[in-house]
Structure formats: structure tokens, C-alpha cells
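Q&A FORM
Asked by: J.P.
Topic: structure of Aminomethyltransferase

PROVIDED:
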Amino acid sequence: MSIYDTQTSRWHHLVEPGISLWQQGIERDEIVSRALAVVSLRAGDHLHLVAIEGGQPCELLFVTAAGRADPAGLEPLSGEPRMAVFDSGQGSERFDGAALAALRGMARRMQLDPAGRQVRRVFDDDPAPGAVAGFAAVEDGLCLIAAPAPAMSLCGAHAPSRVELLTRRADPAASPLMALPEPLADPLQEIHVPHSTAVSYEVRAGDYIQIIDVSGRQCSDFQALTLRGLDAGRELEIHHTTTRSLMGAAYPAPGLHSRFFNVAQEPMFEVIRDTVGRHDTFGLACFARFYEELGYPGHVNCTDNINARLTPYGVAPRAGWEAVNFFFNSRAEHDNALSFDEAWSRPGDYVLLRALTDCVCLTTSCPNDLDPANGWNPTDIHVRTYGAKNLFSRSVAVRMTPEAKPSLTRQTPFHEKTSALTAHYVEAGEVWLPATYRNHGAVAEYHACREKAVMMDLSSLHKFEVTGPDAEALMILALTRNVRRMSVGEVVYSAMCHETGGMIDDGTLFRMGDDLFRWVCADAYCGVWLRRLAEENGFKAWVRPSTEALANLSVQGPESRRILEEIVWTRDDETPLAELGCFRFSVARLGGFGGIPVVVSRTGYTGELGYEIFCHSGDAPAVWDAVAEAGAGVGILPCGLEAMEMLRVEAGLVMAHAEFDGTTDPFEAGIGFTVPLKSKTDAFVGRDALVKRKEQGRFRLAGLELAGNETAQHGDPIFVGRAEIGVVTSCVRSPLLKKTVALCRLDRDYAEEGRAVEIGQLDHHQKRLRAHVVPFPFYDPQRTRLRS
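REPLIED BY: S.T.
REPLY: Here is the structure written out as C-alpha cells.
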């Protein structure tokens, strides 16, 4: 729940159960550096701008309903913002190309050129993270919000910064939250489903169906029957057992396992987009007996509504229709219990499906008002269909915080190159990354890394530029490593912990300058955490995400140095690539003085000699081509995530949600070397807890070698007799070592080398896999190849 404090002009977010912003009638959006946003306002509406990372000035141009630019249409709620003149600049100096195109389009529609108009400018005098500027609309109109900024340099200067837009409506009923989101394209059909009803509609193969939760937390059952089947007298609907069996997943989602099937094993639909990310998906639509046994006979239900809609098709009524339960949050617990809670969906959330055959479809808006399934208050669903000629990106949505705008899975800057080599992608870190490549496969890619060289798209890693006079103090506090000892040009691997000592993430810190750092990690929440620490400690430090501005290509393998020596050029004051030491980086160019600017670091995730190349996103295809051409003579291959998993487990390298999570400290995760409690005298988050955990810790990371060729799974328990002593975290078959190896978390008393243990499967006792404790890394334990 968020409250605006008029005394301090700040929003306060309460960390306790409360009502979401959208349930308070507050609309939230974000604008990023070099972008533009437009908010429709009515007289009495309040608009607040919150500087998330800080350092991003904003300009507000108010245009009245009559089309007149008038700064007086926005009344400041506190202070007096300075006036300025709106300037669209010369493209790259202020706004990106998409923003300028949008600006020109808006100017044409409004018949008003914003250039030269008087605007209100905020955050010039208060660039700190969390700064707030508030305005009240004096009359109806549109507010153009601009975030001008220079393009980001490769070393992190002018990193993108975000500003949160919060709009509180004087009349909540007039809020756009109560209206439908804009269509994704020109709809073929607009079908509204009032609460407690159902609709039927027909689609053709290739058509798209967008099922929208209008107000949020409203369940919707979906079912369909093939028209070809009905013509032949067969009722072929979506069948959950067939779908689960063919997809090998609890329910389809965007990506490889995305299809719904009928009992004839005919694909009916595929999931293209999902902005919610959690559904029950398979179960019965609510039915009469469910309500009768609660003591509510005659209660309207989805099954009866579906039956009524299918009567014209000659389909016999059923007591309970199996359905795809979108926006329903239920789960099967390990103790054989079925539980559920309010849905995860927010206003405007949707699922986008693509029909693979001609169907009659059924969509309901569930009438259940007797439990939290619909937030105790059934609301409407809306359906749009789109023609087969449209093209929509495949994506799921991620929200870093509960109120954040959903971020759809995006393609990486290398996609145009990787997509020519594979169609096998998986979602990782909010982007699609190749799992394997055609004509190679994981084993061939693995051997190429161990014997020659590979190139891997690692643009899923999150990058944060940490700048300002207190940047060093912030990183000293946030990380376990001794940041104060770092030199410019150095990279250090570190853990980032909670006060409890449990890990938030691991990552690499680049010292770009005395007061310039780049944190590269897997979890986007690190940015939220760093900004929180800066605010709580009053640091003059800015934390800005640069993930989308920087692409990174990993070049790994014994031939990687020879390949990159041919194309990487450095100034005289930078370390040449041939001399670059482990965990060092150089600012360089490809080809020569006038080549593509890059940062090349001697880092990696394979246990081999290797490098990572960071470049501007727009330069990514050219960087890929340059590396591929330089490596062609030694047999360089592209490498996907499946091969990388084998490589990193062999090398004993840890991964979040495998070897560690928020309950695991660095000692238990096998990276205790990142916590120099004796040499780092500065305080850091989690230090006191880690001192105790080091002395009293029960578990440590260990290696296992399994007898036979069966593979253990993440989470399999480890036993000595009937005593459970640990858990498997990662397991792979090693092509080079010709054995199955695993990383595990073991009780310290049972982690000595040579200890015989058993891995429990099935009921953990009926089936056991024999193994024994071995040292790790399994491959190159002295890391001689990495240091070569």
C-alpha cells in the first residue's frame, strides 16, 4: 500500500498486507531516459513523478482540451518548478528514434508542435533517487512528459534512468484502469463477457485470441471444440491429460512447450503471450454441485453457462466442463492438498493464444463470489480476436516489484544472428536465449568449448551503473568482497546478501573509474536493493539499469585469446588483450582506432580461458559477425544454455535457485572465499550474521560422483541409511569425464572425501542412487586452463 506524505512530498510504501495501487485507483507507469509519455488528465486529477534512480530531469508540457499549450494547466503541489523551453534536439542528443517518431505523430494529431513551447522542468535541483514532483490538473487536457538525456557511453556515463508516474483520479470511475487496454492490432472481433456469463465465438486457424482481465483478479474459463470434429459428430475439446503428456509440463506457456491438444492429439492452440505468469489452467469450470454443497443451490455457474452457449452446436450438456482456468491461482501441495488464493492478475492483464485449427470457443467470466478466487467480487472479461496476418512476439511478463509495470520477454540484440541458427529458445532473465543450435546440439557445443572456442549470447545478465561520490561506499556496504582494494580496470566476483546472511545474488563488479562501477548479475532485484541501501544510508550514489543498452557476448575456450587478438584493438594506456589478466578488463575497439567500441573482460562461466565482450545493443550484430569470422578458422561454434549447464557444473560454478537462494549463505553455497571477514574491516550488509554462520554453519557445498548413468534431479535428498544429510543442487552427465557428477549441499559432518551416500528418488527410500563425495571442480580442479 502506498501513501503520499504531503509534509515530505514523498510516497511511502508500507511493507505489510495492503491494497495495491490499482485498487486505490492510482495508475502507475514508468518513463525511461530518452523517452516520452502522454497522460490524459481531467480537472482535479493529481500527477506525481518519482525519480526511481535519480539524475533524470523531466519536462512537462500541458495541452488543454482545446489544443492550447498552457503551463498553467498544471498547478504544482509543492515548490515551484522552473520553466524551460521544450527542445526535441537533434535526435541522439535528447531522445531516441522511437520517441521522436511518437512525438511527430502526436504533433500531427494535435496539430500542435511542442518545439519552443513553455514547459515545467523538474529534478534539475533535486537529482536524488526518490525525489517527488507533484501537480494538479486545473482543467482537462493531455500532459506530455519528456525525459531528455544524451546516449549512454560504453563506460556507463549517462546510464538510463527511470521515473515513476503515479496518477490519482479525482473521479476514480473515470480512471483508464476501468477501461480496456488499447488493442494489440486491428481486432476482428470485440466480445465483452459481463461477469457471471459466458460467450461463444468462432475462430479460424491462424487467428489470435486475446483474453483480457478487465479489472484484475477475475478468473476466466476457456474451452474450445474443433469445428471439423463437430461436423463429423465428434466432440474434440482441449484435453488436459493429453496436453500435459505431450508437453511434459503442468500447463503450456510461451516458448517451446506452448500447445494445447485434444484427445485425438491434434494441436488446437498455442500460447503466444502471458502477462500474468501463474494460472491453475486445468480443472473443471465451476459447476452446480460445487455451489450446492456450499449451501447455495441455484447459484449461477460457468458449466451451465457453457452448456447454454453450446446448445446451438448440438453439444449435449455436461455436469462439469473441463476447462483452461486462466487467472485462477490454485496449486497442488506436496501433502496432497489442493489450495487456492486470489488471482495474480492486474487490470489489463491478458493471455494471447493462436488457433491452430478452426474452432468454436467458449470464454466465461466466473460468477464465484463465495471465496477469494475472484477477489470476492466477480468482474468482467473481454475477448479480442486478431487476423492470422498479424505477428506478435512470444513473451511472458515479469514484475520486479508488486506494483511494477509488467516487462515482457524480449529478444536480445543478437537475436537476428542466433535466430538464423536455431529456433530452440528458452526464457532466461526476461529475454529469449538459445538452448541449443541446429546441426550441433549441446554435446558438440560442449566439446567445442573444451577443445576450441564457442560464442554465447549472455545478454540476459542484468547490468547496473553505480555512479556518484558515494558509489564506492555503497558497493562496500552492499557486497561481501573488499571493494576498497579494487583498482580501475579490475573485476571482482562477489556475493550480495540480506541482513540474515542469505544470498540475494552473486555477480561481478567492474570498477570503471574512481566513482564508477558496473554490477553484472542475474537478478534484476539487485537494482532495487542497491537503491534502497543508498536511500537508507543517505549516499550520494545513483543506480541505473543499463541491461537493454549493453549487450554481452561470451567467447570461451582454449582458442579464445588467439581469436580475439586478431580483432581487439586497445589504446596505449589500456592493457592489450594478449596481456589481459584474469578478472581484468580493457576498454577497446574492434579492428582498429575507428572500430566498434567495446569493453572486453577476462571473465566467464565455463572454467576455460575466456572473455566477455560488452557493446552497445545496436552494435551487437556486427560484433557477432566479427567474432564468428575471426573464429571460423579454428572451428568456433555458437553455444546454448544446455551446453553451458554442463560446463559450469563441471567447473563447480554456482547458480541462483540451484546452489543458493535467499536462505543460503555464501559458505553453504561454496563461495565462502567471497567473504573475507578478516581482511575486510568495513561493515557490510549481513556481516554479523555471516560471522555466526561461518562458526555455526551446518552445511557446505560438495561434489558427488554417481555410480551408473542415471541422473539425479535438483532437490533430490541425500541419505546415509535413513538419515537425510543433504540435497542435490545440480547434476549433469559429463561427456569429457565420462561419468555423472553433481553439486550438492551436505551436512559438514558427512562431507569428507570418499564418503558413500545415496540419493533418494520416488519416495526417497524405494529407489536410491549410489554416489560418493569427491572434490570439485570436477574438471581442471586447479583451474590451470582458466589462468592459462
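FOLLOW-UP: The first strand starts at residue 2 and ends at 5.
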